[in-house]
Write a structure and sequence with these properties.
Largest sheet: 6 strands, mixed
Number of strands: 10
CATH class of the largest domain: Alpha Beta
Distance between the termini: 9 Å
Structural class: alpha/beta
Helix content: 25-40%
Low-confidence stretches: 1-11
């Protein structure tokens, strides 16, 4: 079953639930260039929603509008059914939406624990923390170990190791763990395996599954069709600034998805 942009369809079991994040008819233009043309999206609790599309389809613009990096010209966002608007990425983070971008935004010179709490450092209790603002390094390291264990990340045993000494997959794991630790509502992953090998890509995909198992809904932006079909529950297809369709790995093949994405067929 498909869900075309303006076509009513019978709801699947997942869609009978209330979306945790919803976008209704978002429009975003850049001068004469139309980035988004009335795009709607629904993300349900405990699912992985993949967003795919060719270059210029509006994937990045859509994600930026969902996470506060861009403000839509028209349309409305809803979080837990309540209207919400983001003026900047910090607003989305405060609402529980964490984003891991392709460049990771980790600090190579800091260790794993410090990166997990970067910008959210925990202070020591009492006067040391309140007056002298002393960071509780020991406490942060313990919480970092607990978070990594809960996510099933076994490749990072020592949270005191500088991130610059880690592999690409391990750095991605740090960024995902940070998002999971503070993304109480939604985690957005932008091309998380783009620069990784097969083995490390597999580890990151397992992290995505682990997030879903924890009940954290994930938006995954990717060009890698086999990976999308491996982990996604539903797939939102963008084409020329519009939503071409929303499909599932059960209802459509990878060939179907590419055909819809390129305009060779409709949903």
């Amino acid at each position: 079953m498909t869900i075309a942009e303006d076509t009513a369809a019978a709801p699947t079991p997942a869609e009978t639930r209330k979306p945790i994040l919803e976008a209704k008819r978002l429009v975003k233009t850049f001068g004469r260039v139309v980035g988004l043309d009335g795009v709607s999206l629904q993300l349900y609790p405990g699912e992985v929603l993949a967003i795919i599309g060719d270059n210029g389809a509006g994937k990045s613009t859509l994600v930026k509008c969902l996470t506060g990096a861009e403000i839509p010209d028209e349309g409305q966002l809803f979080l837990d059914g309540e209207p919400i608007s983001f003026k900047r990425p910090q607003d989305a983070r405060a609402a529980g939406i964490e984003t891991v971008y392709q460049n990771l935004a980790v600090s190579p010179a800091l260790d794993v624990a410090s990166n997990l709490f970067l910008g959210r450092e925990v202070r020591k209790k009492g006067i040391l923390g309140s007056l002298f603002r002393v960071v509780d390094s020991k406490g942060m390291r313990k919480m970092a170990r607990d978070e990594l264990t809960e996510l099933g990340i076994s490749t990072l045993q020592d949270v005191t190791v500088p991130v610059e000494n880690l592999s690409g997959g391990q750095r991605q794991a740090v960024a995902v763990a940070r998002a999971a630790a503070f993304g109480s509502k939604v985690v957005v992953l932008d091309e998380p395996t783009a620069a990784l090998g097969v083995r490390e890509s597999g580890q990151v995909l397992q992290l995505v599954k682990n997030l879903r198992d924890k009940g954290i809904p994930v938006i995954l932006i990717s060009h890698n069709m086999p990976q999308v079909f491996e982990v996604a529950d539903r797939i939102h297809i963008q084409r020329l600034g519009k939503r071409a369709a929303t499909i599932t790995p059960q209802s459509h093949s990878m060939t179907d998805a590419v055909a819809i994405m390129t305009g060779a067929r409709t949903a």
